[in-house]
Amino acid sequence: MIKKDSAEYYLILANHWSYTGIGWQLGLESCRASVEDSLNIADQWPHVKVCINPDARAYAALRKYFPETIIRLKKYLAEKKTEIIGGTYGQPMGRRSDAGRRSG
Predict the structure, then answer these.
(1) So what's the pLDDT on residue 46?
(2) In contact, 58 and 31? CB cutoff 8 Å
(3) How far does Cα 54 stand from its chain's mean position?
(4) Do residues 4 and 44 make contact, with C-beta atoms less than 8 angstroms apart?
(5) Distance CA 50, CA 65 (A)
(6) How far apart are CA 3 and CA 26, in angstroms?
(7) Which residues make Cβ contacts (< 8 Å) with residue 69, sequence separation at least 6?
């Protein structure tokens, strides 16, 4: 059996959340809960590398509506307890009004 504080193995947890995906269905509260859950795992299992991957729009919304989560996230980033992966504006919001139309 491997001890919890053993360096004989590595475990990385990556948490993805997108505003246009699950966030569209469940709302921003689900993003806050997702980030907080990841940070809680970093506390419970310090040897586990926790990576968080919301889209950039989610970070902006968290900063506005859940600033305490962003404060905690910044602290964990500074302490290298977590890492951000992705986090781009790569997922478009809304729909283009000309999608599916013929040109001309």
Answers:
(1) 82
(2) yes
(3) 4
(4) no
(5) 23
(6) 37
(7) 32, 35, 36, 62
Give kind and range of the element (H or E) at residue 74: helix 67-78
Beta bridge partners of 17: 54
Instruction: pLDDT tens for the chain, 104 residues: list them.
Output: 556 665 565 566 666 665 556 666 777 888 898 899 989 988 998 877 888 888 788 888 899 999 999 999 999 999 988 888 876 666 555 444 444 445 44
Q: Which residues contact 23 (CB under 8 A, 6 or more apart)?
A: 17, 30, 31, 58
Look at residue 101 in the predicted model and tell me its pLDDT: 46
**Cα(66)–Cα(59) distance, integer angstroms:** 10
| Rg of the chain in Å (alpha carbons) | 17
pTM: 0.69
- Residue 99 — φ and ψ, nearest 5°? -65, 130
Token pair in block for residue 19: 């505003």
